Amino acid sequence: MPDAPTTLKLRSSSKAIKAGYACALLLALAIAAYILSSEAADARLWALLTIPAALALYLVIQHLAKTYTQLTIESGRLRYESGMLSKSTRTMDLAKLQDVRVDQSASQRLMGIGDLSIESAGNTSQIVMLSIDRPQEAADRILEIARGH
Prior knowledge:
The protein is of the alpha+beta class. The strands form 2 sheets. The chain has a 4-stranded antiparallel beta sheet. A 3-stranded antiparallel beta sheet has the order 5-6-7. The protein is 40% helix and 30% strand. The chain is elongated. The two termini are 18 Å apart.
């Protein structure tokens, strides 16, 4: 059996963001339908549409933050990068990898996503990758690559 490739790239899942977009759209449609069906509708009721608009703006910001966050394993190193305008990069030697943990809330389990925490020996901080798809598979793959180095 040939060796598996030692390159792995992980990004945060956008499943929850997409569900949020759908909720914001449904809320906007419900508000508009209520106002249009109301006989004595006050024009000020249209201001209620700022609620789904604010939710959509928040979701766009979260979506951008997730887009510019990535965890890469390559050449015996783990690199975590985040940030769009300003960028933060953390690099960890795979030989010092000590612990990989998966945390999933009930809603994350329903969506098949979870949070991945990675710690290295001699390091008091950890790298946390939020809301990734199939987190247990990713954790197993990281450990498999780390054992190969």
